[in-house]
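Two proteins were folded this term; both appear here.
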Amino acid sequence: MRPPLPRLHAITDERTARRPDIPATARALADGGGSDLAFHARGRELTGLELYSLAVQLSNLPSFLFINDRLDVALAVPTAGIQLGHGSLPVSAARALNPLWWIGKSVHDLAEAEAARTEGADYLVVGPVFETASHPGRPPLGLERLKAIVLAAEGLPVIAIGGITDERVHEVRSSGAYGVAAIRALWDAAEPAATARRMREWML
């Protein structure tokens, strides 16, 4: 039986994935996030071996592991779910590999959200909700369009991403989001365990 979808998602990028302190920071995040935390091993410029090594490190922690895009890596480590992007394989292909995976889709507007729901995604990662350094130049959706996507998702869990900080968790949740995802707010936090715990508690 599939466990509940975590509400807090700590996503890596190339910069965080290659940091020498990632094992210690990940353990602190796991301490604060517990079973409501999912790590996402992601890094478009990482080699397959780099992403696999990162995934192995994260899979040894008492939180859930998701892999972004790389289905080969997802098959090689204990993985609770995957997140597919615009250029990824279809949801049906991923589902055929493991029917117990949580399969999410990254979407950026209402049309993409409706297409992902029709395709059979289990959850949506929606953003950027606010301005973010991860996507410079991309206009943020804002809370009103986030609300519209939540309605269009028709019950699918929506994970908000993009400019998410612990101070913004409450307003994102009030807009209907099931949970939040972040890179810098979690991996660059001065006190990762306390930040993850606070963000998790504010989503309850």
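Next, the second protein.
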Amino acid sequence: MILHNFETKNSILNKFIAELRDVTIQKDSMRFRKNIERVGEVLSYELSKTLNYTPQTTVTPLGEKVIPLVTSDIVICSILRAGLPFHQGILNYFDDAENGFISAYRHHEGNSDDFEVIVNYFAAPDLEGKTLLLVDPMLATGRTLENVLKGLEGYGTPKEIHIVSVIGSEEGISYIDSVFPETTQLWIAAVDGKLNSKGYIIPGLGDAGDLAYGTKR
């Protein structure tokens, strides 16, 4: 897997990540969603540099100009529910992309630390020969992405796979490196060192879905 970790480079992305982590600022759910959206936009710009381009002629009021434009067939596939604002940020830049949505959640039996990832809803277009962007804001253990990859097998074989995340753990990144094709590229804004006993990223930012949309039962 090819890792693009933007925590190693100073940019405006640092501000958005700092605000997402800040326990005071993240109480503003609208700002939290907006910051996730903005991270999606920055990572999309960087990812766009690796796509396929073909020169095309654009007609202006005063003449013509040849401009290289993206020709990759892109599918943005997001994991609900924290993936929704992140998806929108990516869609802001790849506005011609097809879209897919996946419901995946952790099921803790009896509130124990052990859990299984349950995937029970898919809505995705044909992926055959396309550029798949798998969107998951929090890459913790990597098991959700593994299950999603298995679930998408019936939708065709993508030409290339890009995983886009806000924050990930070293353990989770190592795990998906072992289960995804070696040509997969991971675009991530920050990497943290460890997970707690329940599989949450430390220091991370908390439950991204709850912070974006309110607590769940």
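The first helix runs from residue 13 to 21. The chain is about 30% helix and 35% strand. These notes refer to the second protein only.
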